[in-house]
Amino acid sequence: MHRGMKIRHVMRTMAVIVLAAGAGLTSPHAAFAAPTPARGAQNCASAPPQSKRVGAWMCVDASHKVDPKLTANRPAPLATTTYCITEGCYYRYSDTWVQFAGYGLYYFYGDEQLGEMFHNFNWYLNGTNTTQTAAVDIDHEVDFPEWSGSLFNGAAGVNGSVIHDCTTTDGPAEVPGGVTQYQPPGFCTLSDNRNYDHNMVLQYSWQAPDTSGYYWVYAKSVVAHSGSLPATSYIFNGVSSLPANPASQGWDA
Fold first, then answer.
1. What percent of the chain has pLDDT above 90?
2. Residue 156, CB half-sphere, CA atoms under 13 Å: how many?
3. Is the peptide bond between 48 and the residue preceding it cis, with omega within 30 degrees of 0?
4. Can you give the pLDDT at residue 87?
5. CA–CA dist 95, 35 (Å, integer)
6. pTM (predicted TM-score)
């Protein structure tokens, strides 16, 4: 249960987990540590009918729309610096700045849509340091939002292993719908000079009112590379140079 479950009315029982982070997950900020293919894809298709859908689940907006509030001020990237995957698009603005703009995500319990969320993550390099900024926009109230992340050793196509973790940071107990949430200033800067390649992951998780468990979304940065060790600086590889399981979303108890 997500950080001291708040009960308002009658608690629903999550009888069926349709979209989850993986077996044995015990921490709200560990979904990216052992990613598995999202289950419950049948709930995102035209069949079965929505009234037959069960459990907690999330789907990527099939129209691939992004939130203009989160992307209005970004520079226009060149076509060669853009790379899109199922969950959204990566943009490489310079050797030291990349961004992930997630497509809209609908989250449900059974046949009830609880909300729609958008997210926009940025990563920056400075010498051997990697830092990140982020914004999330959800159209319904969320409870107990949380930011977490890690720096991973790993080249393109590799899950890798954790080098350092960010200190998990909680947001307000309640955030009204439609209020853009920004990652807390100075949330996390991590350093590494011992690996040729690394990447940084950011996760946002939240609880829907009157439900148990929590929904989560994460994205990993483009792989950063140094040509020598011990490293003195890193630059981002090409925009399509992504670690394994670069982005995902789901629900967990």
1. 51
2. 9
3. yes
4. 93
5. 28
6. 0.83
What ranges make up the beta strands (E) of 15-102?
A: 56-60, 82-85, 88-94, 97-102
DSSP strand pairing (169-170 vs 142-153)? antiparallel
At residue 70's C-alpha, the angle toward residues 183 and 77, to 5°, is 110
H helices within 38-129, ranges in order? 68-71
Per DSSP, what are the bridge partners of residue 182? 135
Mapping DSSP to helix (H, G, I), strand (E, B) and coil, where does residue 104 land? Answer: coil
Phi-psi map region of 95: left, alpha, beta (phi>0 left; psi -120 to 50 alpha): alpha
At 17, the pLDDT band (50, 70, 90 cuts) reads very low
For residue 94, give Cα distances in angstroms to 15, 38, 59, 81, 237.
47, 32, 31, 9, 10
Cα dihedral 123, 128, 129, 134, rounded to 10, equals: 0
The Cα 111–Cα 24 span in angstroms is 26
Which residues lie closer than 8 Å to 86 by C-beta, 6 or more apart? Answer: 60, 247
Task: Name the β-bridge partners of 149.
Answer: 202
Which residue do the tokens 């789907």 mark? Answer: 59
Q: How far apart are CA 242 and CA 226, in angstroms?
A: 16
| CB-CB neighbours of 225 under 10 Å | 18
Q: Decide: residue 24, CB within 10 A, 0-12 exposed, 13-18 middle, 19+ buried.
A: exposed
Q: What three-state secondary structure class fits 180?
A: coil
Q: How far is Cα 101 from Cα 238, in angstroms, rounded to an integer?
A: 17
Q: If pLDDT is split at 50, 70 and 90, which confidence band does 251 have?
A: confident
- Do 154 and 197 form a contact (C-beta atoms < 8 A)? yes
